[in-house]
Every structure is written in C-alpha cells, then in structure tokens.
Design goal:
Length: about 230
C-alpha cells in the first residue's frame, strides 16, 4: 500500500542540524552521502550548494512542491501545539519557544521546496524507502538516517530495523543513525540492545556515540555502524 499525503508530517532540518546530529566533519562533507528519510530537510540543498555529493531518499518525494507545501501548512499548527503540550520533553537552549523553533523549521523547509524541482531533475531526491534501496553495494561513503529508525520503534519492529540497518550498511561504507530514543516516550529504543548484540555476531562494528545535538531530552546519541566488508 502506497504512502498517502495524510500520513506525512513534514518537518525539515538544516545542514547545521545535520552537522550536530550526525557529528559531521568537513572531511565527511567531502564524501558521497546518502540521506535516507531526508524528508523536507534543506541538508541536500545546502550541502549540494557547497559541493557535497548528496542523494536523499524519502517516500514524500513522490508528491509535488504544491502538495508538500500544503501539507506543511496543514500539519504545522498541530506540531506546534504538541510541542507546547510537551515542553518538558525538550531542551530549549537553542530555541526560545515552540513558535521560534517553528519559524526556523519553516525557513528550512522553504529552502528544501525551492531546491526540490531542480533536485528531482538532477536525481538528488529519489522516492525510495527502507528496507530495500536501489543502489550498488558500497556506492556511498556515508549513509545517514535521521528520525526514522529507533524514533518509530512502536511502528517499526526489530526485524525491520535489522533489515534496514544491514541495507544501509550494504550501500555505504559507514552508517550513522540519529537519535536512538523513541519519538513518544523519549526512552532508548527497545530495539537497540538486540541490534548491539546481533549485528556484531555477523561482523558489523557498532558504537553508540554522544553528539552535540539535543532537542528531544536524552536524544543526544547516534549509532555508528561499519559493515564487515569495510574494516
């Protein structure tokens, strides 16, 4: 069953956010990058403008600029209201209020929408989704996956997580997943421990690392995965 626009809750993040969420260095940004579940983030637009090779994948890319823009307008008040209702679950050191955060996110998504038509033509935005990707083994230096795996642990089971991580590790020499907490409770995902136990048995090297980004309280760690064929 295909994705419908009503299932989409667009929320975009910037290159500066990505740098912090994924602990990206200047050297990382010289690599070829896959941004999986990129959504309406401006990361691709900003990174491409400075010469980074980025391909973003997300089922939202099947929709038009106008459809995505309308969906942003429809869902924005609900997101701000939810942030207001759950203020204590978030860290407010970079933003003064939910509305301030919202303004920043809207500017980020506007940058995405401006870049989207050209990016589609250049095959920088692809309508693809985990756990199966259409890329060659080792096609990318680095795969990033933000606010999908672990975040949606209630909807996506352990098997999905294992398959998705192995697929990301097939197409990239290194994988970084952020955050490792769930969207709802803010607790460490229940899938993390079995993943940390099972994948090393198959030769994967996994580390959990603290990053300089924390908006969701306790959500300041990423999972780094290096597949067995790239020691």
């Amino acid at each position: 069953m295909g994705l419908t626009l009503k299932q989409v809750v667009p929320w975009g993040r910037s290159l500066a956010d990505y740098r912090q969420m994924f602990a990206l260095t200047d050297l990382d940004l010289e690599a070829s990058i896959l941004d999986c579940a990129g959504g309406p983030s401006s990361f691709n637009a900003e990174a491409t403008a400075q010469g980074t090779s980025v391909i973003s994948c997300d089922p939202i890319y099947q929709f038009s600029v106008e459809e995505i823009q309308q969906r942003i307008q429809d869902t924005y008040p609900q997101i701000i209201a939810a942030l207001e209702d759950n203020r204590d679950r978030f860290v407010w050191d970079q933003f003064t209020s939910p509305h301030h955060l919202g303004e920043v996110r809207l500017a980020t998504m506007d940058r995405f929408l401006e870049d989207f038509p050209q990016g589609i033509q250049q095959n920088r935005y692809l309508t693809q989704t985990l756990p199966q990707l259409p890329f060659k083994t080792g096609e990318f230096d680095l795969a990033l996956c933000g606010h999908l795996l672990f975040s949606y642990s209630q909807q996506l089971d352990l098997e999905f997580h294992l398959n998705a991580i192995q697929e990301l590790a097939r197409v990239a020499r290194e994988v970084r997943i952020f955050p490792i907490v769930t969207n709802f409770a803010g607790d460490i995902s229940p899938h993390l421990t079995p993943i940390l136990e099972q994948l090393p048995q198959a030769g994967y090297h996994l580390t959990v690392e603290t990053v300089p980004y924390e908006f969701q309280r306790g959500g300041n760690e990423l999972l780094r995965v290096v597949p067995p064929h790239f020691p």
